[in-house]
Amino acid sequence: MDVRKRVYGDNVLPGRKSKSLLLLMWLALKDKVLILLSVAAVVSLALGFFQDFGTPRASDDPPVDWVEGVAIIVAIVIVVSVGSVNDWQKERQFKTLNEKKEERTVKVIRGGVEMLVDVHEVVVGDVALLEPGEIVPCDGIFLSGHNVRCDEAGATGESDAIKKLSYEECIRIRDERLLEDNVKKARPSGMDLLGHTDCFIISGSKVLEGVGSYVVIAVGTKSFNGRIMMALRTDAENTPLQLKLNDLAELIAKVGSLAGLLLFSALMIRFFVQLGTGEPARTTNEKGIAFVQILIIAVTLVVVAVPEGLPLAVTLALAFATKRMTQENLLVRVLGSCETMANASVICTDKTGTLTQNEMTIVAGSVGVHAKFVRQFEDNKARSNVDDLNTSGDRKHVQDFSLDQAQLNQVFSPALKTLFNDAIAVNSTAFEDRDAATSELVFVGSKTETALLKFAKELGWADYKQVRDSFEIVQMIPFSSDRKAMGVVVKLPDGRWRLHVKGASEILTDRCSRHVVVEQDGSGEAIETAPIGELERDNISRTITFYASQTLRTIGICYRDFEQWPPAGARYVANDEVEYDDLAQDMNLIGIVGIEDPLREGVREAVANCIKAGVGVKMCTGDNVLTARSIAQQCGIYTVGGIVMEGPVFRQLPPDTMKKVVPRLQVLARSSPEDKRILVETLKGLGDVVGVTGDGTNDGPALKTAHVGFSMGIAGTEVAKEASDIILMDDNFSSIVKAIMWGRCVNDAVRKFLQFQISTNVTAVVVTFVTAVASDQEESVLSAVQLLWINIIMDTFAALALATDPASPVLLDRKPDKKTAPLFTVDMIKQIVGQSIYQIIIILIFHFLGSQILGFHDHTTKESDIVQTLVFNIFVFAQVFNSVNSRRLDNKLNIFEGILNNYYFMSITLIEIAVQVLIVFVGGAAFQVTRIGGREWGISLALGLVSIPLGALIRCIPNAPVERLISKIHLRPFWRKEEKLPTTRADAEPGFGFAMDRMRDNLGTFSTVRGGRMRSSSFVVKSRSGRADADAPKVVPELLTMFPSLMASHIVGSNWTPQSNGSLSDPAGFDPSRSSAALWENKFEVHPDTPPNDPVFKLLGARPSTSRP
C-alpha cells in the first residue's frame, strides 16, 4: 500500500493555502488610491507636526494641524480593515461550505476480502464496489456488474444515464458494429456514434442503479475531478471598476500635483517680489517660516485634491451589498465580482441543473384517452393538445378535457387511483433514501422510475413501500432493449393475477385493446374500461406525437388481469416464467406520461428580467439539439433572430464567421467544455462582460475564464464552486438577477459618491488656490481643521450614506455599461461642474464681500470671525444638500425616490447637521469659528438648499450639446475611452494556458469517448513522441497514469460504436435530433420567425424557414 501511495499518490487534494488576514491587508494596501492617500497622510502628518511644534504659535491657537494626517491614516486603516476582514470571512464561509459533514467510507476488495475504508485511503489498484446513490470517489475501469448506470451530468454535462460495461464487452460490441458497417459498405455517421455506454468510471459521477465493481486507476490530483480542481487554482483579475478607479487615482494625482505646483510657483513669485521690495519687513527667521508656509499650503492643496472617502465608499458599498446578498442566498467569494455583474452583458448558462432541476419529472400526460393533464397548467397550456385534437381534421375528440396535474385526484375514482399507484409502486426497483449532502429524502434509481414515484408521492397516494410489500410477486420481467418495456405479475387479494407493464408508449399502446375511462366530474367507484377503436387509436397516436414534438419522453403504463396462473395456452421461457409476448397482449391502457427535466421555478421571469436589463442569455448544453431548443423556448431564451447550433459545427466556424455568429447565438447544443470556453473567450474578445453559470465539473474552465462565474451551492460540484466567483446557495437561476441588481447598486453607489466627492474637491481646491494667492499671509479661507471636517469626516459619512441605498428592480430598467464606458457619465459631469461653479462663486463672494453683505464696517476681529464661520457654514450645508442631490445619477427629477427605505442616509444626514451645529456653538478655537446669529444660519441653510433646485435645473440641460462640448475641448480621455477591436486571439493570451491545456486534455478524452470520436490527447502524443531523459529515474509503473487515455484510444481507435437500443430512461432509443430536418441536415437553425431578408441567412448559407420544423 505504501508503494502504491508513493507512486500514484493519496486520494486527497492538497489544501489550498488560504491567505492570512495580514496578507489580505497588505494586498489591499496596494490599491493605487490608497497608495496616493498614504503618501498624502505621511506628508500631511510631517507638515502638521512642524506647524504645531516647530513654529511659534499664539496662546489661544491650539496645535491641531497634525490631526488631518492622523485622520487620513485612520481612514486608510478603516478601508483596509473592512475590505480584508470581509474577504477573510467569505473565504472561511466558502471553506465551511465545502467541508464534508461526515467522513465517507467506500467498499473495496483487497486481497479478496471486502472491507470498508475511508474515502481518503483508497489507492490505485483497489477494486471498489458500486451501489445506487453513491458518488464515485475516484477514476476507474468497470470490471463487472448488473445494469449499472451512472449520472455523469455533474462531470461531463451528459444528461442521459450512461450504462457501464466491461472492457471486453465494449470490444465485442465495437467489433460487431464494425462488422455490420462493413456489410452495409458505409461508415457510421457522427449521430450514429452517439451511444450512452462505456467502461469508464469517472470521479464525481453518481450511480443511479445497479451494482458492480471497478478497478481504481487514478486518485487525488491524478483523477478527473482532482486534475481539474488543481488546474483552476489561479488568481483573480482586476474588475472593470477597479481599473477605472485606478485610472482616476492617477488622474487626480497628476491634476492635484499640477495645481499644487502652480500654487507653489505663484506664491514663490510673490515671495521673491516681496524679498526684492522689502515689503513687508521680515526677519531671517520670519522669511524661513514664510517659505515653509508656502510649501505647506501647496501640499495642503494636493491633499485636498485627493478623494479620501473614495476607497471607503467602494469598500462600504461592496461590504453592504455582499452582506445583503448573503441574506438572499448569494455567497460572494470574490468581492470584486459583485460590481463586475453590474456591467454583465451576456450570461452563458448551463441547462441541466441550472435552468432545469436535473430531476426527471412527469410534466404532462393522458390518463385513459381523454383526460389530458399538465403540470402547472396555467403556465403551460401549450402542453395540452385538447384544442388541436378538437379542431383538426374531420374527427372531433369532443370528450377530451384538460386539467392541472394537481387536480387528478378530483377526477380519479378511488379504484383507479389505487390501480395507477400500484402500477407505479410495484413495477419499479427504485427506492427512497436520505441524501448524504442535504439529509433530505430522495428517490434513488433510474430517472424514469424516480419520476413516476415522485409523481405518486406529490399526489398524496399510498406509500410505495407499503404497496410494494403488500403484493406477492409471481414473475418479474426485467427491462429489455428488444421489448422496450418491463413488467411484473402480482397476485391480487381476490385470487386473480395482474400484469403491470411500463415502457415505450408507441409499442405498448399497440398491445392494448381497451383503456380506462376517466370522467371529468370524477364519478364512478369501480375501474371502468372501454374499447380502443379507430378514433381512440388516432387520439393516442396524435398525443404521443404531440409529446414527442416537445421532446418529452413518453412512457406507457398498462395492465392486464388473469383469472388463472399460469394463463391457459401460455408458452414458457423457463420453468416458472411465461413468455412476455403471451402476457403483453389485449392489455388495458392506464395512461401515457410525458417526462422531462423541468424548468426551475422562476426561471422564465429571471430570463425575462435579464433581457429587460439588456443582458443576453445563451444556453450551452451537452444535450441533444431539440431538447436544448425546447427548453430554450420555454425559458424565453430562443427568440426571433436567434441561432441554435451544435458544438461540432460551432467549433469549426472560421474566426471571422464565429465573431459574427456569436452575438446571435442563443443555444449551443451538444457542446463540449472546450466549446463553452471558446464561446466565452469570443464574447470577451468582442468586448462583452460575461457571466457563466454551471454546476458540473465540466463547467470549470468556462467558469474560470468568464468575468464572473456562478456555481450552484447545493447541486454544484466542488470543482465548480472552486472555479466560481459567486455561489448560488439555493441553486436558483433567478438569483442571478439579484446579483445583477446588487452589482448595479454598488456601481451606482460609487458613482453617486464620486459625483458628490469630486464636486467637493474641485470647490475646495479652487477656493484654497484663489484665497491663498489673494492672502498676504499665504492662508486659505478654510483652516486645516475645517478642511479635515469637510474632506475626511463628512466624506466618510457621505460614503456610508450613499453606499447604503438598497437595490431595487428599477435598476434593471436600463442597459449595462460597456467595459469601455466612462466612469463619469455626461449627467455626472453636468452636476459636478454645475455644483462646483455654484459653490465656488458663493464661497468666494462671501469671503471677499461678506463684511459688506452683512453690513460690517468696523472690520473688527469678531466680525471677521463671523464672516469666516459663515463661509465655513455655507460650504458644509452646500455639501449636505448636494449629498441629497447626488442620490440620483440620471436626468429624472425625483431625488427623494426610495429615501425612506434608507434609514442610514436619513440618520447620517441628521448627524452631519447636528455635529455642524455643535462645531459652530462649541468648536471655538479648535475649528477657528465663532457663534453666529439667526441671520447667518438662515443664509447658510438657504444657500445650501439652493443645491437641490440647482440640481433639478442642471438635469433639464440636454446631454447632446454637453457631450459635443466635452469632445470639442478634448476631455475625451477623462470621460470616454476609445473602443479598440482585439488584434490577437483571446485564447492566445497568456496567464491560463498551461492549466487550460491540461484541463482540455482531460475533458477532451472523456468527451470524445462519449461521442465515439477520438482525437488523440496531446499529453499522450507528447508521451509517445518525447524522448526519455537519460538522467531521469526509470519508474515504469508511473506510465500507468496514462492508462485511461491509452485505453480510450484503443477502444475507440477504430470508430467504436456502443450499441444503444434504448433503456428504461429512453425506452424507444429515440434520437430526437433526427426529427427536425433543418437541424439534422445543417446542425443549426435560425429562429423560424426571423425575417427572410435577415443577413444571418446569407452568413450561414441557410434558407429561411417557412414553418417550424
Automatic annotation (TrEMBL):
Residues 780-955 form the Cation-transporting P-type ATPase C-terminal domain. InterPro entries: ATPase_P-typ_cation-transptr_C, ATPase_P-typ_cation-transptr_N, ATPase_P-typ_cyto_dom_N, ATPase_P-typ_P_site, ATPase_P-typ_TM_dom_sf, ATPase_P-typ_transduc_dom_A_sf, ATPase_P-type_domA, HAD-like_sf. SUPFAM superfamilies: Calcium ATPase, transduction domain A (SSF81653), Calcium ATPase, transmembrane domain M (SSF81665), HAD-like (SSF56784), Metal cation-transporting ATPase, ATP-binding domain N (SSF81660). It catalyses: Ca(2+)(in) + ATP + H2O = Ca(2+)(out) + ADP + phosphate + H(+). Residues 1085-1109 are annotated as: Disordered. Its EC number is 7.2.2.10. This is Calcium-transporting ATPase.
